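S1.2 Input.
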Amino acid sequence: MAVTILFLGPLRDLAGTEALEVGAPLDWAGLLSAVAPAVAEQLRLERVNVACAGRVLADKTGLAAKDGDEVALLPPVSGG
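S1.3 Output.
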């Protein structure tokens, strides 16, 4: 039983990997403890979003990933 965490953009550089597999189920506290401290610090920022099973969460602290889900960590989008 596992959840895959995907690190996108600059979060990938902070994590040092593209993906990490962790035990399921996975909640917000579990996510913060599963990733590197530098990534966890970024996740606490309002501008960083979290998607679970293809849906961006309105409240990322309500994360409830289950076996087979992918959790994508989405850095802020820059634009011009």
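S1.4 Remarks. The chain has one domain: 2-74.
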